[in-house]
Amino acid sequence: MKLAEQIAQDWRLRLANDCPNYAKSTHESIICWLVGEDVARFEILTLPQLALAQQAMDFRYRILRRRYLGVTPDQAYRHLIQRLGSLVLLRQKIRTWVALSRDRQRSVVDVVQEVIQEMLQGDRYMQQQISWIAQCTQEARLRNALVLATTEEYCMRPVRNQPLLVYRFVNYLRRCQRGGLTQVPADELIRLVSEEVSPSDTEGSISLLDVQASVEHQEVQAWEEQQLLRTSVQREFETYLAENVGPMAVQWLRLYLQGRSQDAIAQQLKLPVKQVYRLREKISYHAIRVFALKIQPELVASWLETSLSEHSLGLTSAQWQQYWNNLTAVQRQLLELLRAGHSIHAIAEILKLKPNQVIGEWTKLYIAAQMLRNVS
């Protein structure tokens, strides 16, 4: 049990830094959910298995913060359906099925919702998780967020290089054959679902608690899309820096994205370290205040380790607490909405402000954090 207690303590420190505005009871509920019901299992894991278990907890936590924590239940549910409905393979199969079925008015979202609802009601693993979450917290909104985060993580688990949700859709097709698929010949059905996920006898008995699926949490498709996005944004950002800051800024960015330290970058560029740090702050300022607000603010900020969601604007725990204490209620709400992934226009509607006012306020907040980083 000692190892489980140490893991829980590590999460307490992380949550205190990432979510300082949430109550300690909320932190404890999230930790309870992350660590799981069988805490004794940590004591018998090998080091590689322990590393995978910690990776799994981190994966779940990032899903929770990215889409479900701190938003309304309706928004959280929409985030889940949008995320799962964006799976390219699943979306293609659903559209093909709808086109071949009697009911051609149904959308991808309709079908995804039905598959998810069926999973929540009948899947043994999900029923166990829902029961455990109910023990972790009595707070309705948090319980809802944990259930939806668990659902996304479970649906994205890779089984034979495909997300588990794709296999669940195949099972859904079988049960729907008496409805929309009655006119589809068997050969056509096999072609429709493809060789990779064909409903063979062996795949009919896929274990939903597959050990490999339980420890591998690789969002392959999402990762590839993110890499393409990063490359595109990097090219645009380099062009912007060359035009507005100078060619030295482009060199700094490329070296930084290679994982070089500021000292190593200084040596490579043959500049004093202080000048390199000033260059970093200048690039960071332009990234957030001008470029990132129009393109991908969190992506650019994550490169510079000054993102709001992952790095608390680059502030230490003590700096963040000082920073947070000096904010107004509206400013705090704005940051929480940004951290939850809301768009500028959505925030403007919630706060009853104009989009330009939201951008202006966010700019002030970022600059204030930058000044605090520079002073310390």
Overall pLDDT level: 75
Total strands: the figure is: 2
Backbone CA Rg: 23 Å
Order of helices and strands, N to C?
Answer: HHHHHHHHEEHHHHHHHHHHHHH
Tell me the quaternary state. single chain
Count of DSSP helices?
A: 21
Keywords:
376 residues, mainly alpha, 1% strand, globular
Give an overview of the whole structure.
By secondary structure, the protein is an all-alpha fold. It contains 21 helices and two strands. It has helices at about 1-20, 25-35, 45-70, 75-85, 90-100, 110-120, 125-135, 140-155, 165-175, 185-195, 210-215, 220-245, 245-255, 260-270, 275-295, 295-305, 310, 315-325, 330-340, 345-350, 355-375, and strands spanning about 160, 160-165. It has a two-stranded antiparallel ribbon. β1 (about 160) and β2 (about 160-165) form a beta hairpin. α3 (about 45-70) packs across α8 (about 140-155), α4 runs parallel beside α8 (about 140-155) and α7 (about 125-135) runs antiparallel to α8. It is globular, with a radius of gyration of 23 Å.
Summarize the structure.
Residues 178-225 have low confidence and may be disordered. This protein has helices at 2-18, 24-35, 47-68, 73-85, 88-100, 108-122, 124-136, 140-155, 164-175, 186-193, 211-215, 220-244, 247-257, 262-269, 273-294, 297-303, 308-311, 317-325, 329-339, 344-351, 355-375; strands at residues 158-159, 162-163.
What is the secondary structure topology, with strand pairs?
Blueprint: H1 2-18, H2 24-35, H3 47-68, H4 73-85, H5 88-100, H6 108-122, H7 124-136, H8 140-155, E1 158-159, E2 162-163, H9 164-175, H10 186-193, H11 211-215, H12 220-244, H13 247-257, H14 262-269, H15 273-294, H16 297-303, H17 308-311, H18 317-325, H19 329-339, H20 344-351, H21 355-375
Antiparallel strand pairs: 1-2
Helix pairs in contact: 1-2, 3-8, 4-6, 4-8, 7-8, 12-13, 14-15, 15-16, 15-21, 20-21
